[in-house]
Fold:
Amino acid sequence: MSEKKEFKTETKRLLDLMINSIYTNKEIFIRELVSNASDAIDKYHYLSLTDEAVEKVDNYEIRISLDKENRTLTISDNGIGMTKDELENHLGTIAKSGSLEFMKKMEDNNDTDIIGQFGVGFYSAFMVCDKVVVDTLSPYSNQAYRFTSDGTDSYYLDEISKDSVGTEITLYLRENKEDENYDEFLDQFKIKRLIKKYSDYIRYPIKMNMVYTHPQYDDNQNKTGEETEIKEEILNSMIPIWKKNKSEVKEEDLISFYKQKFNDYEDPLLSMHINVEGNITYNALVFIPGVAPYNLYSDKFEKGLQLYTKSVFIMDKCKDLVPDYLRFIKGLVDSADLSLNISREILQQNKQLAKISSNIEKKVISELEKLLKNDYNKYLTFFDNYGLNIKYGIYESYGAKKELLENLLVYQTLNNESKITLKEYVNHMKEDQKVIYYASAKNKEQLLAMPQLDALKKHEYDCLILSDDIDEFLMSIMNKYNDIEFKSINQGDLDLLTDEEKDNIKKIEDDSKNLLGKIKEALSNEVSDVVISKRLVDSPVCLVSGEGLSFEMEKVLKQMPNQNEMKASRILEINANHDLFKAIEKISDNDDLIKDYALLLFDQALLMEGLEIKNPVEFSNRMCKLMILCAK
Structure:
């Protein structure tokens, strides 16, 4: 005869909260029930070693069976089972966890992974079913019992016959609704996929009889019927590769795991197998993909590592495990030390995650440093794919990660065919060179065409080629490398002249004061100053910016919303040794012609800097006018 019981803790309102509010994804009921079954086997195994009353079992297993006709899904185990009192205390009392009590009793035993902590995982079943039936037998009881509940405020207990110790949970699935499909949980292949997703690394075999239908044909290849085959399959891998000793795992094993786990046809560029024990113990597998994802820099790209706790899948993309600049890494972390919330879906605190993230970050950087040292060509492949991320790592932290990342930076330079590190640049600096020179250019050809490079070529100094939009912002954040300042070749004074050369320029400026004044007046709305250049050797003119915002920064900022007013100060530099300046000196009394020359020189300098000229038509007309004058 059934014995009706009321739930001890709360009313139907609390049960509704458990079912409808705690969990956000219906399919995780399979994770919770399989985890409970695994816990039950863990308990049985431990007690079989310590209590003579509990017989030893050789073959532990979890079984899943489906009955489409009756709309049932059954999960059974040969674990510890439950007595009548345990049924009432653990299933009849919401949020009273047998696993938690068991853990308290065996705090000194480090070999048993108990997954459940809150006693609510069982109730996740009511997200997909109208009724749950639990048949169970404990080795500490001669009587088996059945627990039946429809998820309201009461349940029923019955005495039953059961041949073996363990628990069998049968879910009577709901009928489909307009926007909710429950038939999918009667699909054997769907269940198989869910086991692989959530419970692949449960240590005990999860078995299910899979039904396969094979068509039959006669000798003329006409279909005559179908043959049904039933195969018992183990759905889970059981032993996760990341929990094996490093000595047992070969590089090809990691590569194979990566390709299968993350659906990538390419080998990873780097594989990292991490085992850490201490205040926070965890295992991790981290990979750098061989090819950057096509949407790596889009808003739709989601960073993060998969998160497991005690080999049970918790989250696909845990963002807190990855600093933003390493968003390209893939992998997983498994830790028994994480504090999960009641539904195991999000973390109650992120201090533990922050610690793991910091450790993984340092490990990734350490491996990249080794790669740079031991296989430079492979490192250059990495940098071609992800170098922009390393730069952002320094920039977005306002230089806080400078010391961690600066030695990973590589740049094309004027004097080298392949990219070099900042350390290599410094090691090859001329004895009299005081700063690290750089210029923004798409490539070496564009750099060589820059008039500002004249003075560096004369001294045979090398120059970094900054080809990414972020580079000049990065230089302003870093400021120095090994106490050596960075210096733009088209900003400020390069200070490359001898005292004699400086005196000579000072004399020219004094002699040409009137002419320079007229040119400056003609360009009063365009430039802050007009000066005799200390950097030009062969070129007639160039445009440089004052300290602060550079031309390249101006270009980048103008591409952003509401940044059109950002403008670098402009200084026009004229080469006093060039024939063009000498020609202008000859017509210094003709103010109208001086204005035309001034505007033409300014537009010419703008074009060489890749900046737009205000009025291309006026530029063309002015050029034609001067050409006609020269022809007369």
Observations:
- The radius of gyration is 37 Å.
- Residues 414 and 457 are 9 Å apart (CA to CA).
- The chain has a mean pLDDT of 86.
- The first helix runs from residue 12 to 22.
